[in-house]
From TrEMBL:
This is Adenylate kinase. Pfam families: AAA_17. It comes from the Bacteria. It comes from Candidatus Buchananbacteria bacterium RIFCSPHIGHO2_01_FULL_39_8.
Length: 191
């Protein structure tokens, strides 16, 4: 089984998910994080996430089907674990014009327990991106607003298509612990 946690880059997904893993150990829930980037690095033979970020989005998009095959095999082999996916619903190219969507997988309906999208004000996302600059993170406030809206649209669409619960959680500064508690509560309700 898996829980998909989405949100734009810089919204704080990885921080929240890392804290969920720690809290889950305390509460004796077997949870592990699933991140696609290290799998893509392995597929391509790249050594670092920074090298992967230098690949154009079109190239990364071509590699994702193989990544999803590997993820599915892991889910099946370790089905006693609740996996938390740290991901996005949309991926913009470097120009910020074209975007790809997270494709619905044939196994999503069977294995996904729900969708959570972390949100934050565009200015908050901008400040976080400025503090943690990366090649694939745009810094324009207008682009960030577009990204947030696209992420929201696609998450809603996939939730409806898959008939899975969808929760949006504001993740402003200081909200991490509150969101960790809420997500642990939702996990208990959904499994």
């Amino acid at each position: 089984m898996f829980l998909y946690i989405g949100g734009v880059p810089g919204v704080g997904k990885t921080t929240v998910i890392n804290n969920i893993e720690t809290k889950a150990i305390q509460e004796k829930i077997e949870i592990k994080k699933m991140v696609g980037a290290p799998i893509l690095c392995k597929i391509t033979g790249l050594r670092t996430i920074d090298e992967l970020r230098r690949l154009p989005e079109e190239e990364r998009e071509k590699l994702r089907p193989k990544m999803y095959d590997i993820i599915y095999d892991t889910l099946k082999q370790k089905s006693h674990i609740l996996w938390i996916f740290d991901g996005h619903f949309c991926y913009f190219d470097w120009n910020g014009e074209k975007f790809g969507m997270r494709p619905i997988q044939s196994w999503d309906k069977e294995l996904m327990i729900g969708i959570i999208v972390l949100t934050a004000r565009p200015k908050t996302v901008l400040l976080r991106r400025t503090a943690d600059r990366r090649l694939d993170r745009k810094l324009g406030i207008g682009f960030i607003k577009k990204e947030i809206e696209k992420e929201r649209e696609i998450a809603i669409s996939q939730s409806v298509t898959l008939n899975k619960p969808l929760i949006f959680l504001a993740n402003e500064n200081g909200d991490t612990e509150k969101n960790v508690q809420k997500i642990i509560q939702l996990i208990r309700e959904w499994i």
